[in-house]
Write a sequence for this structure.
C-alpha cells in the first residue's frame, strides 16, 4: 500500500465553524472517532498548523485564509481513489473546509 497525505486547506466557513467551546470539543471528538475508525490505515493523524507565512525569492508575505495549509494526516491506501474515499469521510469537510489528497513519493534512505 502507498501512503497519502490528506492536507487540510482553509479554516472552514464561518457559518459551519463551531460556535462554542462545547461545539469545538464535539467536533474534535468526531475527528478522533474518525481517526480511530480508520484503524491501521492511519500512518500519522498529523496535527494542526498555525502562524502561516509564505517565503519566496521575493520576500515574506501573509498567506490568504483560503490558501492556508491548516493541518495534515497521513494514511495508507491501495490507490488515490481509495485515499479520496477516506478523505471524503473526514469530519473537517462538515465545517466547510477542503482537503487535498496527494500520494507521497517513497524516497531512498
Amino acid at each position: 500500500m502507498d501512503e497519502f497525505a490528506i492536507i487540510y486547506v482553509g479554516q472552514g466557513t464561518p457559518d459551519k465553524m463551531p460556535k462554542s467551546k462545547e461545539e469545538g470539543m464535539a467536533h474534535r471528538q468526531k475527528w478522533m472517532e474518525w481517526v480511530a475508525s480508520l484503524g491501521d490505515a492511519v500512518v500519522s493523524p498529523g496535527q494542526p498548523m498555525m502562524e502561516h507565512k509564505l517565503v519566496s525569492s521575493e520576500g515574506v508575505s501573509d498567506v490568504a485564509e483560503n490558501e492556508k495549509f491548516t493541518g495534515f494526516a497521513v494514511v495508507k491506501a491501495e490507490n488515490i481513489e481509495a485515499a479520496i474515499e477516506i478523505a471524503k469521510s473526514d469530519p473537517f469537510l462538515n465545517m466547510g473546509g477542503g482537503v487535498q489528497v496527494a500520494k507521497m513519493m517513497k524516497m531512498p534512505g
User: Anything to note?
Assistant: The chain is about 25% helix and 30% strand.
